[in-house]
Amino acid sequence: MATPLSAAKMLAALKAEGLTVHEHAGWKTHNRDAASGKSFGPVIGVLIHHTGGHNDKELCYKGRSDLPGPLCHAWLGKTAGLWMIGNGRTNHAGYADIDVLNALREEKPLPHDDAATADGNDCLYGLEIENLGKSGDPYPNAQYRQAVLWAAAICRAHGWSEKSVAGHKECQPGKIDPSFDMDDFRAAVKKQLAVEPGKTEPTKPAGKPRVDLSRLVKAAKTDPGAKQGHVSYMAGTNLT
Ligand SMILES: [Zn+2]
Questions:
Q1: Which of these, 70, 162, 180, 233, could form a disulfide with 215 (CB 3.0-4.6 Å)?
Q2: 212: pLDDT confidence band, cut at 50, 70 and 90?
Q3: Strand pairing partners for 50?
Q4: What spacing in Å lies between the alpha carbon of 91 and ligand 1's midpoint?
Q5: Would you say residue 2 has pLDDT above 60?
Q6: Distance, CA 171 to ligand 1 centroid (Å)?
Q7: Domains along the chain?
Q8: CA distances from 111 to 88, 174, 185, 237 (A)
Q9: What is the whole-number distance in angstroms between the Cα of residue 119 and the centre of ligand 1?
Q10: For the chain, what is the mean pLDDT?
């Protein structure tokens, strides 16, 4: 539990970690606190997303007709770099599993998410990474590296470990983002936190999500008569 970083402290932390930071006009006062009547914080961790699209920085700032912006705290372009989008409460996490939020707060291993009843926008910083999240859309190494640095910078500023980092797919049933392996991502954040901020530490490329074997086993049991080509549990076996 911690008080959210001020805009100035956030900028300082990100730059100290070695990031080049771009600022969207108005980001320092762009949030949902007044509109929702709920203030941001205390904060307990950071949440990683992919956008599911391309060229969506402005969408993340303005929001959609059904979901007002900001839709994240920062947007990370495929090649456009890291952009500050919001400061305060932002609409990125929606409802989350309270057990997962409690585990993040206590820096314990994350339990399986099977509910979405707790407000995740209250307590999580959110990064939206520009990526289709399907069809094997790759994360350039430089982009993935910046995502690791973003998470590490915030963890370092709060005195958190990599166990305060989660993917949206780990917090809310039905979500598949981000489309890379979060254990690999946390390992990279841990490695970064072990060195002085600003030091260059190579980060391994984004890891493919591991296949959820439990669903494969279930599919084998429940679909014995399925024709070849029948798709069982697409979300568990094919996340591209
Ligand atoms: Zn998401």
A1: 233
A2: low
A3: 129
A4: 10
A5: yes
A6: 9
A7: 7-207 (3.40.80.10), 210-240 (no CATH)
A8: 27, 15, 17, 20
A9: 14
A10: 89
Identify which of 79, 104, 220, 235 has the alpha carbon closest to the alpha carbon of residue 164. Answer: 104
How much distance in Å is there from the Cα of 73 to the middle of ligand 1? 12
* 7 CA → ligand 1 middle, Å: 23
Amino acid at 66: D
Q: What is the dihedral of CA 90, 96, 102, 105, to 10 degrees?
A: -30
> What is the dihedral sign for C-alpha 51, 141, 148, 24?
negative
Give tens-digit pLDDT for 114-134.
Answer: 999 999 999 999 999 999 999
Span from the CA of 180 to the centroid of ligand 1 (angstroms): 13
Locate all alpha helices (DSSP H) within the chain, ordered by sequence: 7-16, 33-36, 57-62, 98-106, 141-158, 182-193, 213-222, 234-237
Report how far ligand 1's centroid is from the alpha carbon of 141 (Å).
Answer: 21
> Cα(93) to centroid of ligand 1, in Å?
6
Q: Tell how far the Cα of 103 is from the centroid of ligand 1, in angstroms.
A: 19
- How many Å apart are CA 85 and CA 75, to the nearest integer? 7
Question: What is the tens place of the pLDDT at every residue in 66-113?
Answer: 999 999 999 999 999 999 999 999 999 999 999 999 999 999 999 999
**Integer angstrom CA distances of residue 196 from 73, 76, 107, 153:** 24, 23, 22, 11
Q: How far is the CA of 221 from the centre of ligand 1 (A)?
A: 31
**Coil/strand/helix, residue 19:** coil
> 């999240």: which residue's tokens?
133
What is the distance in A from the centroid of ligand 1 to the CA of 228?
32
pLDDT attached to residue 211: 57
